[in-house]
Structure formats: C-alpha cells, structure tokens
C-alpha cells in the first residue's frame, strides 16, 4: 500500500475513467438538456463517439503491439503515450464543446474528436497493472477497477449540484472546466510517478527456481542442455 508506482497507476486509472465516465453519463444529458435534442436524435448522435473510438482502437492496437514486439517502442512508452494522447485530445474536445455553443453538429464533431482515443485505455493504464505486478495482477486489477468506477458516481453528483436550479451553458462550462482540470492534474501525476517496471512486491524471483526444483523433467532437460 506504500508503493508509489501503484498509487500513480491508480491516479492514472482515475484520469482515464473520468473521461470514459463523462462520455457515458454527461454527454447524453448535455445534448438532451442544453441542445434540446429529442431522444432518438440524442441517441444517434451520442452513439457516434463510442463507435468511432472502438474502430480507431482496433486500427491502432495492432501497430502498437507490433512496435513493442519488434523492440521499436517500450511497453512503458506505449502505456504513457496512450494515456497522454487520450487526455490531450479529450481535453481539447471538452474545451471545444464549451466554446462552440449549441450547434448539434459541431458538438457531435468535437465530442467524437475528443473521444476518438478513448479506447486507448485498454492498452494504456488497463494493462499496466499486469506490468508492475505480474504475480498479483488479479488483485491489483481489482483494486484499480474499483478506483476506475469512482468517477461514474462523482460526475453525476457534480452535474446535479451545478444544474439543480439552473440548466445553462454557464453551469455546464463549469463542469467542462472541472473535468479538464481533473484530467490534466491526474494525467501529469501518472506520467511523472508511474512506471511499467515490475515491482518487487508484485514479483517472485524465487518462483521460477521453486517450480524447476519441483519438476524433475524440467530440471533434467536443463541439465542435458548444459
């Protein structure tokens, strides 16, 4: 519980899932209450960003995996660059939405552009738990997933607090700027203190030796090769 890389990764999880939570909870509400779209139009336009980000992730996932396997890029670089690029594009998208007003088409364009790299989370922070603690990846991933769902409760609470008595663009601008501030701060903390190097508490260097000593066939095979 005192591992700085672990808590840095938890902060990174919070950052990326805040973006995802905003798209899942806030975007349809914003388009319905501020842009006054009917439910059918709202549903169609709100489905564009997740569809585009899923397709884009499929196109980018293979080159990233190929670059790591060939040794052109490190795993740590992939994790942090995926996180950073998603955060930058999302913040630019939120900023654009806050500035363009109530045009549904432009809002959809900025929401789509801002969320285009949203699924980079899958080969960003989501896999970093396996990197730092391969022997405890299940436990670590469970804790991080708990951290990741927290924004899904905080974001609706903030929206309800700010728009309870006034559903205006000014109130939503506060929500957008708050989101940008949270994402920037947490992303910077992850980039500075996060790592993909295996941690001593999450690995067992003696595991391989103990498995070999308990497996006579493996031991005999190694002796034969030597």
Task: Provide an overview of this structure.
GO terms for molecular function: symporter activity. Helices cover 77% and strands 0% of the residues. The protein is built from 11 helices and no strands. Helix 1 packs antiparallel against helix 2. It is globular, with a radius of gyration of 21 Å. 33% of the residues are buried.
Quickly list its features.
Growth Hormone, Chain: A, single chain, 226 residues, transmembrane helix, mainly alpha, MFS_trans_sf, 11 helices
In a few lines, what is going on in this structure?
This protein has helices at 4-33, 39-46, 48-69, 75-100, 104-114, 125-132, 137-149, 151-163, 169-193, 207-214, 216-225.
């Amino acid at each position: 519980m005192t591992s700085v890389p672990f808590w840095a990764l938890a902060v990174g999880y919070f950052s990326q899932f805040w973006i995802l939570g905003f798209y899942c909870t806030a975007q349809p509400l914003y388009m319905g209450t501020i842009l006054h779209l009917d439910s059918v139009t709202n549903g169609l336009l709100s489905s564009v960003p997740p569809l585009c980000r899923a397709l884009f992730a499929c196109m980018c996932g293979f080159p990233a995996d190929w670059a790591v396997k060939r040794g052109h890029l490190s795993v740590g670089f992939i994790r942090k660059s995926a996180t950073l690029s998603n955060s930058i594009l999302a913040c630019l998208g939120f900023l654009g939405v806050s500035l363009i007003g109530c045009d549904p088409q432009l809002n959809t364009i900025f929401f789509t552009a801002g969320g285009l790299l949203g699924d980079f989370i899958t080969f960003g922070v989501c896999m970093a738990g396996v990197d730092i603690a391969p022997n405890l990846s299940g436990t670590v991933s469970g804790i991080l997933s708990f951290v990741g769902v927290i924004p899904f409760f905080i974001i609706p609470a903030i929206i309800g607090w700010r728009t309870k008595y006034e559903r205006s663009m000014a109130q939503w601008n506060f929500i957008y700027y708050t989101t940008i501030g949270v994402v920037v701060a947490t992303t910077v903390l992850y980039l500075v203190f996060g790592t993909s190097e295996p941690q001593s508490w999450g690995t067992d260097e003696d595991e391989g030796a103990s498995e070999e000593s308990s497996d006579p066939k493996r031991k005999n095979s190694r002796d034969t090769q030597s």
